[in-house]
Sequence to fold (352 residues):
Amino acid sequence: MKHLNENKLIISAAGSLENGIVGGKIRECLSEPLDWDFVLQLVRFTQGGGTLWRAVRSQNLESYVPEYVRETLKRDYHNTVAKNMFFDYMARQITDLFSGDSIEFIPMKGIHLASNLYADSGKREMEDIDILIHHEDINNARKILIDMGFNEEDKDQGSHYSFVSQHDQPVVVELHYRLFTGKSPVQNTLFHIEDKDIWSRAEKKDNWPNVMNLYDEIGYLTLHLFKEYFHKPKWIGDIDHLLVKTGNDLDWNCLIQHAIKYRFLKALLFVLEYLKVWFGRTFPCEFYEICSNAGETIKEKERKKFISITSQLESIHRHRLAIYSFLTTSRNDMAKIAVGTVVRKINDMLSE
Fold:
């Protein structure tokens, strides 16, 4: 496979460095010949420059990297640190105003995870500020953001509204009123986590009044990874860091029951397979036994195809339907997704 080692380097750098396995994989990659111009292309595509530099530096492997690449990665890293600090500051400003107006919220993805899972926030770039609120609070939240100088950018996306500030460092805020959009045939067919249940189990943690509980977080991150067809390693990195940090506190049986209830067990199996291959993770044998008893396994042919597709970051966007197909349980599901996708594109064209 062309550029396998370059892809392996970018993917491995996203994993947790706590137990040395990922560090060893990064060293292996750097010990082999690399097309560094292609590495920089992948870095731009995945927004992973800061992640790669932090991983290389933490393992004292800077000498393996050409000087012009080092300078680019260092610049990306310092830009990521500054950007994340500003985003965190803005998120606190926004959510303080939400709290003052009795708007309940749950911070999502990077704004919650970057500072709580990563010892160095420069390792995990944030692109925007994602906040989950109740649908009935949209108008009040919109007013707060507009009063802060944000402009509403997009029409209702079926799950969120987008706002952009005009600071020196532009900030995008996505106000989510549901986790997944009802307008997407993929998400409608394959994703079944209930928003009301997310709210009912939210807990005070990590200096936030509400965050998703552990099993909801794992479920949401797993399905979000499939929604975004694995094209940015930081999302699999979030899951890896979460599982490493949780360690023995994770009740695997509880996670399986949660995955069965919300129908993401197959997705979880694929994600764990990814973690095994790229980050060297191991999981309890009883986990796979319970999954098998529940009727969920991954065939070897499926596993090889999945790993092959998701290890080609430069072309992964061309394989979105193939990635979604790993979660389908019938041809009828794929037919719904294919037809729904065509209909949605036609509707979008007609509305322009």
